[in-house]
Amino acid sequence: GQQLNQSPQSMFIQEGEDVSMNCTSSSIFNTWLWYKQDPGEGPVLLIALYKAGELTSNGRLTAQFGITRKDSFLNISASIPSDVGIYFCAGRTSGTSYGKLTFGQGTILTVHP
Amino acid sequence: DTEVTQTPKHLVMGMTNKKSLKCEQHMGHRAMYWYKQKAKKPPELMFVYSYEKLSINESVPSRFSPECPNSSLLNLHLHALQPEDSALYLCASSRLAGETQYFGPGTRLLVL
Prior knowledge:
The complex is a heterodimer.
Chain A: E1 4-7, E2 10-14, E3 19-25, E4 31-37, E5 44-49, E6 55-58, E7 61-65, E8 71-76, E9 85-92, E10 102-103, E11 107-112
Parallel strand pairs in A: 2-11
Antiparallel strand pairs in A: 1-3, 3-8, 4-5, 4-9, 6-7, 7-8, 9-10, 9-11
Chain B: E1 4-7, E2 10-13, E3 18-25, E4 31-37, E5 44-50, E6 53-57, E7 64-70, E8 73-79, E9 87-94, E10 102-103, E11 107-111
Parallel strand pairs in B: 2-11
Antiparallel strand pairs in B: 1-3, 3-8, 4-5, 4-9, 5-6, 7-8, 9-10, 9-11
């Protein structure tokens, strides 16, 4: 089946630092989604990407849909304590029945004040 | 408005109990999903409903029984669960199946 390799698995950074995480796949995806999940809550959609090469920003967050359609990255600039959480990438291929998403394993982000 | 609501927030049940989880959205979405999530793991798809019809059942045990009474509501009926079924149960919806999914806050289930 399809798999997404998300890295890094965890990050420990100081407040104010920039963060970068990425997902890669051996399969081609036509949609990439990035979610953030706080403990005990549901994933919240951060950014959705629909075209190869697309670069989209949402405040301090920037994500890109790789040209090969097999990867995506998420950058967070000037991190703050509330950025703490688990970040998941998710992808969907055109051949997926009923929009089934493939999720990465998540990046656990810790921000030290 | 991209809100999906779920009730209850927390649920504790014994292995002989019958309980139900409820999910609601008023965004006019025609696809709704149930996921199970263990701690620090990604969500695992359980069921997909499209236009109130069950489209995908990811080989989920029959002790989980989904129901979609109308386009805004999705229920998950639970019966004779096992302790390993303890998890966060997430509901999601999308405008149509295959489009971007929006998640609810989840129900934290503990089976004793």
